[in-house]
Specification:
Helix content is 73%, strand content 8%. It is mainly alpha-helical. The chain has one domain: Four Helix Bundle (Hemerythrin (Met), subunit A) (Up-down Bundle). A two-stranded antiparallel ribbon has the order 1-2. Helix 2 (23-56) packs antiparallel against helix 3 and helix 2 runs antiparallel to helix 5. The longest helix has 39 residues, at 142-180. The chain is elongated and about 75 Å long.
């Protein structure tokens, strides 16, 4: 079986970017995808910045650190779920997709450790729900807990820096692609 295509069809195929044959569709899809990734990554960075500053300044009691670990864990869970969904939508930039997945894996590693340190369950006492903190962090000294948390979060900083650079690089790539067609 032979398939014949015209010269204009060949040009159209060659000009497609990542399966897109319309720049506006590519721009919309890529913009939404990158926008959401940037948004929740910047939320995570903001949470980390506040928590780390409070840790460094010694402003947090042990219970506050345990609660912070739990809150960060919940954010990391949410981020990794969404990254898993969104990474399937990255069609062109394999290096970007790989870096997003590395970032997700680093979040998951920290999350596993944090789940050992701090978790909250709700128990019913006197007919009312009461949150109860538990985990290995309770058995650690304040100083040891602070040090271990800081060490785990330090590794994330490297991935976040790389990711920030990649967002800029990918945005530049898309800008070049958009300008090519204008």
């Amino acid at each position: 079986m032979k398939i014949k295509i015209t010269e204009s069809q060949v040009k159209r195929i060659l000009n497609e970017e990542g399966g897109y044959d319309d720049v506006e569709i590519m721009q919309s899809h890529a913009g939404n995808l990158q926008g959401e990734l940037r948004h929740f990554t910047s939320e995570t960075v903001s949470m980390l910045e506040i928590f780390i500053n409070h840790l460094q300044e010694g402003m947090l009691e042990k219970e506050d650190i345990m609660a912070g670990i739990y809150n960060l864990s919940e954010k990391f869970k949410s981020d990794t779920r969404r990254i898993k969904e969104l990474s399937k939508e990255i069609y062109v930039d394999d290096d970007f997709k790989l870096l997003i997945r590395k970032y997700s894996n680093s979040l998951q590693k920290v999350l596993k450790y944090f789940n050992l340190l701090s978790n909250i369950t709700v128990q019913i006492k006197d007919g009312k729900p009461h949150p109860t903190v538990h985990g290995l962090g309770l058995d650690m000294s304040h100083q040891d807990l602070t040090l271990m948390v800081a060490q785990k979060l330090q590794g994330l900083g490297e991935h976040i820096g790389e990711l920030g650079e990649m967002f800029n690089k990918v945005a530049g790539r898309y800008q070049k692609r958009f300008n090519q067609d204008n």
